[in-house]
Structures are given as C-alpha cells and as structure tokens.
Prior knowledge:
CATH class of the domain at 1-81 and 159-165 and 206-247: Alpha Beta
Largest sheet: 6 strands, mixed
CATH architecture of the domain at 1-81 and 159-165 and 206-247: 3-Layer(aba) Sandwich
Oligomer: single chain
Order of helices and strands: EEEHEEHEHHHEHEHEEH
Shape: globular
Helix content: 25-40%
CATH superfamily of the domain at 1-81 and 159-165 and 206-247: P-loop containing nucleotide triphosphate hydrolases
Structural class: alpha/beta
Radius of gyration: 19 Å
Amino acid sequence: xxxxxxxxxxGEVSKQFAKTLAVDxxxxxxxxxxxxxxxxxxxxxxxxxxxxxxxxxxxxNGKVLINGIDVQEEPERAKSIIxxxxxxxxxxxxxxxxxxxxxxxxxxNMPKEHVESRIEWLFELFGVDGWGDDFAxxxxxxxxxxxxxxxxxxxxxxxxxxxxxxxxxxxxxxRLAKDILLKLVERGKTIFMSTxxxxxxxxxxxxxxxxxxxxxIEKLGGTSAESLERRILEITGGERTVFFPDx
Length: 247
C-alpha cells in the first residue's frame, strides 16, 4: 500500500433515489490511520454514504476510491481491505458464532488454519466465553453485535466502516468496543464511523464530518459532545419546543 494514497476518496459523488437526492456532490478525503466520524440527522445521507463505500450502493455520479481502488470497477479488490459493521447485526440463526465466522473466512478465501487461529483470538478479545458455539438464534442483540464486530476484523482489514457501533451493547461491552477501535487506529487502521451518540464521536474521533440533506456541511477537529450537539441543532434548524395539550 502506498502510504500517501488516501484510504477513502469521494470525488463529486451523488446518489439519487427516484426524486430524492440522498447524497449531493460529496467531496471528502480521509487519510490512512484516521478515526473519522460522520454525523447528521436521520435521512441526512449517512447510511447511503456508507453503502457506497462498501459497494452496496452505486453512485449516480462521481467515484468512490478505497486506497486508490475504484469500488465499482474492482469491487472484490476494494472489499478485501474493508471490514463492515452494520447497525443491525444479522447472523443466520441456524449457525453458531464460530460457524458464522468460518463462513466469513471462506468468503475472503482465508486458509482454514488461519481462520481458526483468528477466531480463537477474537473470541478471547470480545469475551465470548463459550457461547460462541451456541446457535445464533439464542443470542441477545449484544451477543450478535460482538460476533458481527468479530467478523469485520477476521480478515485484518485496513479500513473498518461502522454504522452505530454501540447499539445494544451494555456499558462494559461499549467500553471494550471503544478500546478495540482506538487500538486499531493506533495500529494504523482507518475507521469511518457513523453514529448519533455524540459523546462516542467526541471521545473517539480525530475529525468529524457533519452532513445534512445529502451535503457535507463542514469538517471539525476534536470537539466536545456539547459543541457537536449545538452545531447539529444549528444545522437542522434548532431545538423544538416541548409542550403538552394541558399546558
């Protein structure tokens, strides 16, 4: 990998769904080794942007490059260096966590012995504690989230893309997830994270992009959760007055 090549490049990227312009002329460059937060209100274009990074959606205009690789022209090559953690962790109920990870390893053409050693390490890292060999149909949401996070790290990707990583995790698991993500960046990995949890973004991200109505409004350096909340409220039109019929 060329160290000077950005990990993510959006060049005038737009995505149109029927009459809705979900992402509007997005220009964004994220260098290797950055923890980038992507924030905005519901419907702002965050998930659509993530889907274009991961190759799940095709831009209407423009190009998305991952380490210089065009996601649309060379999807398998681009996806080989991406780990994706969606907001809704899906695992086949009839598979155990271990079987699911073995399936993922096969999709990445990983040698079986390498997959097995990575699974043992990931089980220990995430504190799976024996339930990894139970069927996923018996898992809680938090247990599913841990297995999906493990699956995203299985092939040692250079870029980890995350949509709401803390959903369904208890405080202890949230702390563990934060520490793992910070350690990954420390080891040179790049993280692109979308979240509504402003305290998480403020704590973890070295830079934050604010998006509204499909447009990137601004990019911020390290800032507090309070400052982020104030700026997002400014972007979205401020606070709503709370009232009840008997007032």
